From TrEMBL:
Keywords: Signal
UniProt name for this protein: Vanadium-dependent haloperoxidase
Top-rank taxon: Bacteria
CDD domains: PAP2_haloperoxidase
Signal sequence residues: 1-35
UniProt cross-references to InterPro entries, sorted A to Z: PAP2/HPO (IPR000326), PAP2/HPO_sf (IPR036938), V-haloperoxidase (IPR052559)
Organism: Streptomyces plumbiresistens
Cross-referenced Gene3D superfamilies: 1.10.606.20
Amino acid sequence: MTQRPLAGSFRGLRRIAVLTVLALTVPLTATTAEAHSGVEAAPGNPVIAWNIHAQTAIYDTAKQSPTTSTRSFAIVQGAVYDAVNAVAGRPYEPLVSAPRSRPGDSTAAAVAAATHDTLLWLFPGQAESLNARYDEALAAIPDGRAEDGGVAVGRAAAAAMTESRRDDGFDPTAPWTVGTEPGEYRLTPPGYVNVGAWVPNLKPFVVPDAGAYRVKPPPTLTGAAWARDLNEVKSLGAATSTVRTEDQTEAAIWWDDPRMVEWSITRQLADARRLSSLRTARLLAMVYVASADTLIACYKAKAHWNFWRPVTAIPLAGTDGNAATDPDPDWTPLRVTAPSPEYPSGHACFTTAVMTALGSFFGRDDLTFAAYSPASGTTRHYDSLQAATAELREARIWAGVHYRFASEHGHRLGLAVTLDVLNRAFQRR
């Protein structure tokens, strides 16, 4: 399989992104199809309400990791998109299915059924709480043909989605390959757990081959680039760093919590612009599905290069054969290192996917948003998607969990995969 080239300047990729954003621009007013479909606009947007319920089930109750939860959110929001799209008359290409619908079917009922059924498939142990939320939602919808039709559409979309994800490669117990030679991945403190290696084997939602996006090799251990990036994270990312600024420390902690950052920003932008249920469903599906396929490609690259993280490389720097690096056996990062190989940065891949999908949907980069993180106890404000993405790449260095080359190439990979996803899916029919 021919790999998609990721070499070349970021300026070139940015030009591609701008052109793609223009090609995928969605007007900020309701489309003709939506205006005549009976689809609700916020407030009272059922897509946002059920996305919050999904976060409760996935994060607060199941306590899935950010990586694992990306698959769950993509399954849920992909089914919701197909359901709402069907009720609206299928103005967009479906992701998995296009259930039959009738004029007047309830969008709220379709959203409730699609979310409930996919969450129940993912978390059968949460049946009691999920059923209670579902019953409460349906109780607010008048009984009759509209409600019954919406439920049927939502259930059909959920059934098609879950069937498509059976035996999709999800295996939380799959271990990473652990090495002992300089540069090879080692388990990371404090937990030294070996989990997450299922992601490279997960079936993509849209792209044909997630392995076609591998990045170029990490720097040679004996070279100047390796010494430069190792010494940078060693200095800036140490828990006891004296050169990292207070704002950099705050940003490193703030960006370490994707639950309160990227996904809350997506809902915030949908709510602030009073998007209809159809446009909200499409936006959320674009974000989550692009993120899922991006992480699969990203983790395939991680598995391929199997590179060591700063938390293990810095104490063992005396073994890398580079006179410009010195070991520090007591070095610890500001933030806990995720249990996966270093290269490329998963968070850079993920955040770029989110921000690129948002830019493509709204057709602009200059979106103003802010979000609060309980981890840092602060709210950070941004005037553009690119500004946020650029800070994230730096923040992973300040956190002590990634080298600069891992963040930069994670960004490039995330951009390439997301543009491919959005060119293949969610298009107007």
